[in-house]
């Protein structure tokens, strides 16, 4: 913004930090943001920094981004490119609420009573938990299984299943193996275990791979969904010996 010095009467530019300079970011309906905004968010997620008029500003840790997309109404949207989608660790489908959940939603949002918000974690707590996850030991076999699942999504790879070769145009990048390992570590710790197992990798694999594989025309013509391809992948890819 332009500021005017009351004494010198001179005008000068002053940088004011926007909402991206936060620890937790919620990008609501991200596919409705223009490509320029998406590109800026991509830099922040990858580099943990923001560049404005040639000057770079570091973002504080932790930096955690959540984004939503409405899968029904696509008019006036800007689909995220694969490079941007690849920066997100998980893709989670949220279905309709249960009867009990919907009853609670309606009940809580149609009264004058305001919800009490209490802090359950500090910034330092989040940074510590992230460090603990990275410190958790993991066997080479578990890492190898995640890599196998990622490589099996690539149609030209030797590990690719028959369905992948027929119905996928593009598979997951190496970042998928990284996120499956980190996700498996986090799940193991949440469950009270020190080290992740094959089952941990298998359970997070759908969340990691769902937005990283691109079906081809054959999949659309034959009505093959991404979920069906993931079912086949988990079933067909063997565990490391």
Automatic annotation (TrEMBL):
Domain ATPase AAA-3: 8-90
A Pfam entry, by short name: AAA_3
InterPro entries in UniProt: ATPase_AAA-3, CbbQ/NirQ/NorQ/GpvN, ChlI/MoxR_AAA_lid, P-loop_NTPase
One Gene Ontology molecular-function label: ATP binding
SUPFAM superfamilies (alphabetical): P-loop containing nucleoside triphosphate hydrolases
Residue ranges of domain ChlI/MoxR AAA lid in the record: 162-232
The protein's name: ChlI/MoxR AAA lid domain-containing protein
Organism this protein belongs to: marine sediment metagenome
